[in-house]
Each structure stands twice: as C-alpha cells, then as structure tokens.
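Recall the central idea of this unit: under ordinary conditions, the amino acid sequence of a chain determines the structure it adopts. In this exercise we apply that idea directly, starting from the sequence alone.
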Amino acid sequence: MNKAYVYRLYPTADQKILFAKTFGCCRKIWNLMLGDRIDAYNDYEITLLPTPAWYKSDDRYSYLKEVDSLALANVQLDQQRSFTAFYNGTSGYPKFKSKRRSKLSYTTNNQNGTISVADKSVRLPKAGMVKAKIHRKAPSYMKLKSATVSCDKCGRYYISVLYEYDKTDTADKASDPEKLLGLDYKSDGLYVDSEGRCADMPHFYRKAQKKLKHLQRELSRKTGSKKGETPSHNFEKQLARVRKQHRHVADQRRDYLQKRSTALADEYDLIGTEDLSLKGMSSSKGLGLGKATNDNGFGMFVQMLAYKMADRNKHLVKVGRTFPSSQLCQCGYKNPITKDLSVRTVVCPICGRIYDRDVNAAINIRNEAYRIFRCGE
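Accordingly, the structure predicted from this sequence is:
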C-alpha cells in the first residue's frame, strides 16, 4: 500500500532557482523525447524510446546536468505510461508541454537516504535541507519511496512524500458495523444525512463572486487580455491577483471538506453515498447546476471520505446510480411524483407517511449500502 503526506515548503532564493531550473528541464526533456518519437515514427515508422542521457551528452543541452538526474528519469517513465495509456485506449495522444500552462512539478526517488523528513525541513537531492511545515510524520514502519515537488500559480511550494507499507487489515469483515449513515447529495448544502442533518456548506465561491467580478473586469482592461496580444506587466500582476483569490476560495472549500469528512470518518463505521455523475449534473445539457455542483466539491468530499474510512478500517459504500433512492417510501412504495424535483415534501398514498424527500433518500441510501455490504457485492 502507498500513502502520501503533503507539506508546505519555504525554499530559499537559491532553492527556488534550482526548483525553477528543474521544472524547466523536465518540461524540456518531455518535449525533446516526444518530438523525436513523433519524427521517428513519421519518417521511418519505428517506435523510438529516447532517454534523458541522449540529450545530456549534447552540448546544446548541457544545462540538463545541473538538475537532479532522477527527476529527468521520472519524466521518461511518465511519458512511457502516457503512451501505454494511449495504446490501451484509456487516454489521448501525449501532448507537448507549454511553458505558460503546464503544471510546475517534478518527482525524485529516495536512494539510500537522499530524501528524508526532519522536524522542520525536508532533505532533497541537489537542494539540501528545505524548510517545511511538518504538521505530522509518517509512522516508522513506512518506507519512504519518492517525493514530488510542485509550485502552484500563486508561487507556493509543496512537497508530496510517498511512503510504502504493508496493509494489515485488522477489521473483522464479517461483523456488523455499529454506526451507519447515509448521505444524499444536496445541491445547495453538500449533503443531507439519514439522521436529518444538512451539512449547510458555506458557498465560498458565491460569496467571493463580487470581488472576483471586480478583479476580472480590471484584468479584461489590461494589455494582453485579447487574443494575440503580448501580456503587459500590469496584466501579469492583475492575473496574479485573480489567481490568488481563486486559490483562496479553493483553500476554504478544501479545509471545510477535510474537517467534515474527518468528523464523519471518526464517528461512523459504515457510510453510504450515491455514485453520482457530477459531470452530467454540472453540464448545461444535464441539470445545468454547474456553479452549485462545482462550489460544493462533492466529488472531492467523497474521495476524502473514502481514504479516511479505509485508514480507520471502516467502510464507504457507493450505491448505484439506478437505485431510486428519492422515489422509495419506507413502506416500499415507489412514488412517481418525486420525479418532479420541485416536490420537496412527499405524502405516501399507501401508508400516509409525510416525509422530506432528501432525508428519505438518505435513509434509503443507508439501508441499501448496508445490504450491499452484507451481501459483499
């Protein structure tokens, strides 16, 4: 099993220069290898497998020797995986990396302690000890495998340290979980659970819209906002302000989801949720709930919940999309009136029960998740 720990880095000026060189060299190696592979196939119909060593020996690319060699080697492996995914039909053809749009990151491997995590820093090849915020450490039984250094659009540096360990599942799979919970997706509140509680998630993006509108209006007036224009210095500064605001909203959302998912994983043994098509819900051809769906971050929330439940030897069960959670009454009657999304309170014509459709759906999801867990489906 693998597990990664992410830390915030605070590199010095020299270390920032080294990171920038490494990011650029990784991008350059990717483009060189991809270009040679394409040319070899187009000209000679052969599959060329270039390596970074080919280009290091060329005087034109002598700067490649200044950065971590394992970072360049990992680029070769990444490109090979991209081609394998393309041949398998699971991905598109690999593309060239752009200096302006590509993600700034590189991966290096631990060889005999070249990477280590201290109390307030992380040791990296070539860079040495880099100051970091170590909020928690991996247990001693985990083996450090690799580290990925990245820089976001706001200039913040992070490191993801990957560990490998043997999974020893001590949970009794046959025993019944004691505390169950069902979650029904709610567009304007993240979810409603089977106990009648709504998450009431703050709409961080909507709250920041007024400020974002002002910042983006200013950006549209700068030289470089129109296609074909060379971005001015003022355009770059205003773009940085827009990115910073978007990043602030994303950080708020992620922090809220982390805390909420941790609280649920600590309290419950089995949680059932829907296997939703969030892309379809946010599409204009679907329900057209793009802004609300993206502001909620329900997909990210389920991912967080999944790994946190697994770490605690608990269970997250996804109920199929075809399960009519909103239509079924507790008496078993399938009420067609609930197909109208504007109907929020339902009266069952069979048993006379009056219920909230979201709470009822969460209860049905909980019961179906428990059934799936018991049947081992």
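Confidence is low (pLDDT under 50) at residues 169-174.
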